[in-house]
């Protein structure tokens, strides 16, 4: 038997404890995604930030085994310099954030991001090709926000709004098996259609379209080895919001196709290529969990073509399970809304071979003002033996 503490029907959740003696047996894990709203390296590198303490408290209470953080600055640590995620783990997650709360330890895996990387083209058709200003502050200047529109992914400096994957030390990330698609071109997605103006003319110039990357951050496949030897692929992304555009609907089309890339990858499309040039998608029959802020609601919102439903829900490789819900009622929010702006946009979607035990949306602490504009979404899964 695998030792674990079952989740009580009480206010605070308890984690499944993974056993290192689980070879050949089922393993129970908790998987969570949490958009922590534009956390910067300068904030995480020093203790005492009240908002980060509240974020860490939530994570210590939910206690996931696999955690995707959206919107955390990409800062590559070298030598004595730690990454933003490593600082957050050391200064906040490894420090108890309330009486009786145990610190929680993770290993971290950085994921690349197209945010804030200038293209050299006038992508937003403003008449000028803007240059990113130096990253000097945790505040966004108006000039920086304007310049972000000409980047591969919107950002006021390189690495803003990036992602980090945090994993329980009893799990192992297969570093050699990681695949990223940060440089995959939008035009190379099967069936891609470039955005057009109202008169039917191309919104992007031919030269801009030829170098335009599909992912606003990146799409990544991170294989995680369970104690029983099974491998679960974390399929990670954070598509651009289907908003902040005009009649050409460039962001709406991009959001749809970023989500469609997930489906094409699971389908094993041989025309896809990763950042090392290797072609193809996910191996047939592989276990996976789709993770991230996908910026698309299955019912509401401004996405086009209903990409969540069309490409992911109802797909036989994605398991059928009830949408995570919150028991905490918040004015004007549905029980399944994962954001304060009244939409379900954050997802943990396991493959059909993984059994869902429970799921939820964490909204406790709303009376004090939540630490992010998103709420964490968690799912408890049983991973079968290989």
Could you give the topology of this structure?
Elements (H helix, E strand, L loop, with lengths): L26 E13 L1 H4 L5 H13 L3 E7 L11 H10 L13 E5 L30 H6 L15 E5 L4 E2 L5 E2 L25 H6 L7 E7 L5 E7 L12 H17 L20 E7 L13 H6 L33 E5 L4 E7 L15 E7 L3
Parallel strand pairs: 1-2, 8-9
Antiparallel strand pairs: 1-12, 2-4, 3-4, 5-7, 6-7, 7-8, 9-10, 11-12
Element pattern in H and E? EHHEHEHEEEHEEHEHEEE
CATH class: Alpha Beta
Number of domains: 1
Count of DSSP strands:
12
- End-to-end separation in angstroms reads 16 Å
CATH architecture: 4-Layer Sandwich
The CATH homologous superfamily is called: Endonuclease/exonuclease/phosphatase
Task: State the helicity in percent bands.
Answer: 10-25%
Note the main sheet: 6 strands, mixed
The averaged pLDDT comes out at 89
SS-derived structural category:
alpha+beta
Shape: globular
**Quaternary arrangement of the chains shown?**
single chain
Radius of gyration over all CA atoms, rounded: 20 Å
Q: How are the strands of the largest sheet arranged? A: 3-4-2-1-12-11
Task: Flag low-confidence runs.
Answer: 1-17, 136-145
Q: How many helices in DSSP terms?
A: 7
